[in-house]
From TrEMBL:
<protein>
    <submittedName>
        <fullName>L-histidine N(Alpha)-methyltransferase</fullName>
    </submittedName>
</protein>
<keyword id="KW-0808">Transferase</keyword>
<dbReference type="InterPro" id="IPR029063">
    <property type="entry name" value="SAM-dependent_MTases_sf"/>
</dbReference>
<dbReference type="InterPro" id="IPR019257">
    <property type="entry name" value="MeTrfase_dom"/>
</dbReference>
<feature type="domain" description="Histidine-specific methyltransferase SAM-dependent">
    <location>
        <begin position="20"/>
        <end position="319"/>
    </location>
</feature>
<dbReference type="Pfam" id="PF10017">
    <property type="entry name" value="Methyltransf_33"/>
</dbReference>
<keyword id="KW-0489">Methyltransferase</keyword>
<dbReference type="InterPro" id="IPR035094">
    <property type="entry name" value="EgtD"/>
</dbReference>
<dbReference type="InterPro" id="IPR051128">
    <property type="entry name" value="EgtD_Methyltrsf_superfamily"/>
</dbReference>
<dbReference type="InterPro" id="IPR017804">
    <property type="entry name" value="MeTrfase_EgtD-like"/>
</dbReference>
Amino acid sequence: MRLLENNIQSYDFYIEKENMRDEIIKGLSAPVKTIYSKFLYDHRGSELFELITELEEYYPTRTEMKIFNEKIQEITLAVGDVHTLIEYGSGSSNKIKALLHNFASLKEYVPIDISREYLFQSSLELAMLFPHIKIKAVCGDYTGPLTLPLEAEGKKVIFFPGSTIGNFEPVEVRNFLMKSAKLLDDGDGFLIGVDTKKDTVTLERAYDDAKGITAAFNLNLLTRMNRELGANFNEDQFEHLAYYNEQQGRIEMHLESQRNQTVKIGENEFFFQEGETIHTENSYKYSIGQFQTMALECGFKPRKVWTDAEEKFSVHYLEK
């Protein structure tokens, strides 16, 4: 534990390079080359994603924020008195600020993220805005086993905005919800943003914008591997690819090789055929009923759901 400011404690549980190297080599050695989307979010990746959230085409952040702006009093009433708020992902957005401002009984806030620099930067910003709340910044992988420095008393609520849950495979969603339930006691809650199903054109524009910022976000993964793992990817020989897989109900993002080539990471060599891809992200879309059914199967009761007028996005409050 490290004390950053009077009301911030930092906990570093993530051994970044060892974890990253092992997982990426395993993913690139698979029959279908795949890298987990969490590795898109180094400091530069997080900055680029913040730019994506401001794009006209990228509706999820804007629509979810509109729901919070319009329904914050209903959300606050539904959630009730909260002692501890746990956020999966670094809390720099206006959504977490709205909750920290409106949860009058809140004593501690625990953001969890693998992007160390971005996590501590956002925690320092929030500490200045909310000096009465104890902030415990945890650098760690919230998708894996994690022991959190939580106080015993009071109601706990997990906050998971932005439809990041869509990046998980359906079986992973169930495991993730069940793991999250183990952090909570009966009566504790889970406030989560979930993107809904909609037309293909709207979905594909959101993940392949005209300015090319999403492409830069995706390609930054190659830059990161070169810098941190000593790889020799040539960004100019890969292109961003995003499309809606209607059968699977998900947007897929890939990096497509533009030629036959071999890439090295240390002693490991990976051959790419022209047109072969690295699958870097899925974003599953769920109807309200689909998601509530999964939540029920994993130890949660759906208590309330809020949407925009067009039902482009949903915010669910679940109770253990």
